[in-house]
Here is the input.
Amino acid sequence: MIVATLALLLALPPLIWAAAMFDRIGTGRGAIVMGPIRNGAALMLRPNTETEAPDRLNRLLAPGWYLALALVGLSVVPLAPGIVATDLSTGLVLWGACEALTVVVVFLHGWSPNAPLPLIGAYRYVAIGLPAMLLSMFVLIGAALPAESLSVVEVVEAQRGLWNVVRQPLGLPLFMALGLAITLRGPFDYADGAELAGGTSAEESGPALALWQFARASMLVAFSAMAAAAFLGGHLGPVLPGPVWLLLKTLAVMAATVAAGRFFARMPPARMLTFLWVVLLPLSFVSLALVGVEVLE
Amino acid sequence: MTDALFLALSALAIWSGWRVFRVDSMVRASFQLMVSFIAVGLIAVLLAAPYIGIATIFMMAVEMMVMALFMVMFMMNPAGLNPMVMVHQHRFSVAAGSLAFAGLSAAVLLSDLPVRPVPEGAEVVRDLGHELLGPSMLIFETAGVTLLATMIGAVVLSAHSGRYGASDAGSRPPGLTPGGAPAGRKPEGGGGHHHHHHGGH
Here is the structure.
């Protein structure tokens, strides 16, 4: 347990750096390798901006909560057989609670500055974030069914024969929709969009903005590790040791999520809401039903 | 250790529950209530009920988010940051609160509570699943569907009459010319024709 926690804390900063680099490739936002460090350092030296009558406590804590939720979510992912930071029989439910609380935290981040653009971003995000979270839970129940357990360790072990991504082809793409939503990215970036001048972050600068971006990148790492564990067999793989396989798969999901965020266009919120409830959510039901039929056989 | 955690979480649950009535905005009240429920969920985890405890946190996060949003939508103070008084009907509330407190305290003190520690390695989540999808299935499914129907009914009933008249009339954009057809995207499914006809009267 202590080994796993230390390993995660050591591996996280380089992975967050990698996430920030992925975000820069091909966007022309400065140097790819040193850019994130330089921008972060510059932000740390700038003052935080003040707004009129903000909710100071929530404004101060929101980036920290976001980071904490990413860490708690990441802690249920097993790094190797028997090495997991939080060995919980209901690990998938804990991950779900982190997803749900992420929606709350992003809302509070937009609500607390008491300014129009962040508030619009916050309300839009809740409307889109909640159904995205809902469909991810159905997809994760699908991943838990063959394992007959809600423990992430068991979910990985159940993929020794065949990875879930082959057994449940709909699962990973649908789960990626959640990844885009909880990392405020691409087609699901209704919170921090450029058309709202940064949305929930519109009034932020200085260390608070740096921590928010850091937390957003760690959430991408946590989501990618979870997706790798639930659908790509986690630490399972030939020749190489388990943690290396998990690292490679996490990096692959991170790259795919960033690419998906660039590739898909963002729809108006109302149309996205219809798309989520009428197309994606029923698709997750279909995925779950197919898994159920397969497990019964 | 467990006792200290239990006491700290109980104190947090009670304190944030009290704050629900002392803060001055709907959003703050909702999330204070969420903090209270999260503390209760963690107490359930301490009581060897990991599924119920963590599911409580999960459900309450979603529920309080939706509640904050709906209260802001339906209340007179839409932004939620402007101060407002959160308590009303003082005498009735005091009486109801005291009665409920006395009743629950009496129930706790007078009933014969079971003393059965959960054995190490008991599959509590599996047992709960067998109970929910076995003997108690009818109760839970009935309650679930009833709650869903109630929620949909409440929203349908309260959403129609808004502050500025019927909501479907209020949400129709005005015409480009006086008395003309509504501007913007036409509603799908031929509804636009009906509205146009109706507007001509």
